[in-house]
Design a protein that fits this description.
By secondary structure, the protein is of the alpha+beta class. It contains 17 helices and 15 strands. The protein has an 8-stranded mixed beta barrel. The protein has a 4-stranded antiparallel beta sheet with strand order 5-8-6-7. It is elongated, with a radius of gyration of 30 Å. The two termini are about 35 Å apart.
């Protein structure tokens, strides 16, 4: 624990900066505990005891490798060296004891063990300073591990969604060893614990339900899963945004916490486990971004997955298929004549295909784009009858919107431009494709909540169409309060 030596000097400066001869860490302990015998503190002996304590406690630690690396490093901060006598450990324990408000058991952060160790340390009135070493070491180790685990859990979530689901595309910020070192180097415990409490307006409402909602066991499990998903999200929702909830199969235009417009959507279909990473499914991914452009009378660049799984077999069965669907094929950037192609050759898998604008275009007459590398967007569709179905998980992954004119009008936020676009979208004539840059850029959230709150704050539930919940529930069990 070489790093401990660095912070003996640091704490000495903090406590006795006005003196010519800075005291030893033993002097700090003697002053703090009002016990003169602690002046005989022996760093080498303490380090040996610390490693013994680490060996005993290792299996209980949340991040044992990080704690080992910290203890052997000259970087970072020995937690108790700076905070043992300023009340910060007590503040930290207060937050740990309230972790059930987040649905996370307090024992996960070693709360009882830290509290007991701190109490024993304060009660100890030994004349032999060596008796304090095991308590100091245990308090330092469990407090540091508990603090890191608490911050990571509340700020980022206790599990990483990308390890659960193959199509969870919201970027995740997770705790790393580098972040731990940086945090401990300058941590003000009370401040950081206050700052990381979730500010998301739905999070606080679900917390209130957890505490005061008189929930049954099933409802409680659902609320605990929602809290974890909102921790993954991190930020609060803005004042205005587009909210697509996949299990609900609806799109909400949200303004100041209320639904100003509502429409059905079609989402991706799936026949296999929804957390697969092998690409068998078409489930709509969880993701978010900013809607910043529309394409009126869009061209559909057909994804290679659809080409290989569906399109080529249709062309092979019917040589006129492309012409009948207003589609064209390209090879090395040049359009090819379908009649001259041997569609049974392997080389056709290298072709690229597009569907030109028209009434039969799979994207309908408009698509709404937000930047992402997955070719996911919102769009119109000629298959209007699908919006009348109760199960609308029928797409290849993108989100089909029931009322594209309403959404377009809202996004352009300009009456004359909205009328022009509405006319283009609803006409049966084939027009040239054109782009519209949205001056009113709008955050969009494509989410997966089987439990949510309506505008009146009442719990509503939806079918778990992708089977996401059991996997998350199982992953969270060891963290939950009883």
């Amino acid at each position: 624990m070489l790093r401990f030596l660095v912070f003996i000097s640091f704490v000495s400066v903090v406590f006795f900066s006005c003196k010519d001869n800075p005291p030893t860490y033993g002097d700090v302990l003697a002053k703090g505990f009002e016990n003169k015998s602690y002046k005989d503190f022996d760093t080498a002996a303490y380090v040996k005891v610390f490693h013994e304590v680490y060996g005993k406690e290792k299996s209980q630690l949340v991040n044992p490798s990080w704690m080992k690396e910290l203890s052997d490093s000259t970087e970072g901060m020995t937690l108790i060296a700076e905070h043992l006598f300023d009340g910060s450990i007590d503040t930290m324990l207060t937050y740990f004891e309230r972790s059930d408000a987040h649905g996370i058991r307090a024992s996960y952060f070693h709360t009882a063990a830290i509290k007991e160790t701190l109490s024993s340390l304060r009660k100890l009135k030994s004349k032999d300073v060596a008796e304090v070493y095991p308590l100091l070491a245990k308090l330092d180790l469990l407090s540091t591990d508990g603090l890191v685990a608490y911050i990571s859990s509340i700020k980022y979530g206790v599990v990483n969604p990308k390890r659960l689901y193959g199509r969870y595309f919201v970027p995740q910020k997770r705790m790393s060893y580098g972040k731990v070192v940086q945090m401990l180097d300058s941590v003000k415990i009370g401040t950081v614990l206050t700052d990381i409490q979730p500010k998301n307006q739905y999070y606080t409402r679900f917390q209130d339900l957890l505490e005061n909602g008189n929930l049954n066991s099933a409802q409680r499990s659902q609320v605990l899963m929602v809290l974890e998903k909102l921790r993954w999200m991190g930020d609060a929702f803005p004042e205005k945004y587009v909210f697509v909830n996949i299990p609900e199969q609806r799109l909400h235009i949200m303004e100041e916490g209320k639904t100003s417009q509502l429409m059905n959507v079609c989402v991706g279909e799936t026949d296999n486990p929804a957390y697969t990473r092998k690409g068998e499914n078409h489930e709509t991914p969880v993701m978010q971004g900013v809607l910043d452009a529309m394409q009126v009378n869009p061209v559909w660049n057909i994804p290679s997955s659809i080409v290989k799984k569906e399109l080529l077999s249709s062309v092979r069965n019917n040589p006129n298929y492309l012409a009948s669907r207003n589609m064209v094929a390209y090879y090395k950037g040049k359009q090819v004549d379908p009649a001259t192609v041997n569609w049974n050759s392997d080389s056709v898998e290298n072709f690229r295909f597009k569907q030109n604008p028209g009434s039969d275009n799979s994207l309908g007459n408009v698509k709404f784009l937000f930047e992402n590398p997955y070719s996911i967007y919102l769009h119109d569709t000629p298959a209007k009858q699908m919006f009348g179905q109760s199960n609308r998980a029928v797409s290849h992954g993108c989100v089909r919107v029931e009322k594209p004119v309403d959404l377009a009008s809202y996004l352009v936020n300009n009456e004359k431009q909205a009328e022009k676009i509405a006319k283009e979208i609803t006409t049966d004539s084939i027009s040239k494709s054109r782009w519209v840059t949205l001056k009113r850029q709008m955050p969009v959230y494509i989410t997966y909540y089987t439990t949510w709150l309506d505008d009146e704050g009442k719990i509503v539930t939806y079918p778990d169409i992708y089977g996401y919940d059991p996997r998350l529930k199982e992953a969270l069990k060891k963290y939950w309060t009883n």
